Input
Amino acid sequence: MKLESTAFRHLQPIPKKHTGEGKDVSPPLSFIGVPAKAKSLVLVVDDPDAPMGTFDHWITWNISPTTQELHEGDKGPVEGMNHFQQVRYNGPMPPPGRPHRYFFKLYALDCTLDLQAGAHKELVEKAMKGHVLDQAELVGTYQR
Output
């Protein structure tokens, strides 16, 4: 399985438009090679370089396994609470200084998740345990 974006390439800068300094809209994402047995997809975006530890920017689940792409600004079918205390995508907004890495992680599951909107990433990860068929990752960078 692969995760790609037309907005940025793996390990390259994320355009300002998709950050807290820009329009703060999610980038376009393409899902390639989703397993035929998948029942749902989960997308997690986080920053492991944040000063206080990994910072969650977007958590969304129960994406249909037939979905081939999320367009710019699309919302997920069910979204979780990020570290901005919002239930939506919030793009990169690191402290000024060194670049941060933003991990876009896609998981194909053999089930759907029975979680309420607003669940935190830890609950989503716990519910996913033992159900991941495949996963893909796209990493972008951003520096202020």
